[in-house]
Amino acid sequence: MSDNRVVLAEILQNISNDEISKQVSDMLYNETIDTDLDSRQVPDYKLDFSLSSGWALKENQKFGKKGGGKRISKNVVSYLEAYFLAGDINKSEKYTAQEMHNELKGLVEEGILEEEEIPKVSTISNWIARYAQTHRKLKAQHALALVNRT
User: Fold this and answer.
1) Which domain of life is it from (predicted)?
2) Integer Cα distance of 116 and 64 in angstroms
3) In sequence order, which residues have a C-beta less than 8 Å from that of residue 76 and are 6 or more positions away?
4) Cβ pair 131, 81 in contact under 8 A
5) Helix, strand, coil abundance in the chain, percent, nearest 5
6) Does pLDDT of 121 surpass 80?
7) CA distances from 132 to 10, 15, 84, 92 (A)
């Protein structure tokens, strides 16, 4: 968001103040309105505005797209789920984000995964937090379904 503001400020600064004030004064000077309410006469003039039409529309933004970043591939997610569930089954085998990252690097060395597919440790940590929350909800729903069956 702040990048957009910086770029916009730079664009607006590049437009000379003299040019803008001249255009405004010309516009005010040339505009004539009859006192007769039936006919208003405004001369044809075009304001030379350096920004193209529709420049502020959201679909014309070049940056700041939410969710436009790199995603974790489904292949990597399946490995992360396996590591997470291994720790869920046996608490002594819980994997930290760093340990999961190291395991994924081992899979790269074996040629199973590509180096570009491996997410950062912070990304894995965020994935663990989201997945743990989803996993807890699913376990609670499953437990409720079992209770309701009996």
Assistant:
1) Eukaryota
2) 23
3) 104, 113, 117, 118, 119
4) yes
5) 65, 0, 35
6) yes
7) 44, 52, 8, 17
Distance CA 104, CA 121 (A): 11
Token duo for residue 118: 């491996």
Tokens of 18: 């003299």
Looking at this protein, which amino acid is placed at residue 48?
D
Angle between helices 121-149 and 97-109 (to 10 degrees): 110
Rounded Cα distance, 50 and 14, in Å: 10
| 100 burial level (CB within 10 Å; 0-12, 13-18, 19+) | buried
| Predicted local confidence at residue 42, as pLDDT | 45
Q: What is the pLDDT of residues 94-107, one digit of tens each?
A: 899 999 999 999 99
* DSSP 8-state assignment for residue 52: P
Tokens encoding 119: 């997410």
Residue reference for tokens 């984000």: 97
- Residue 124 class from Cβ within 10 Å (0-12 exposed, 13-18 middle, 19+ buried)? buried
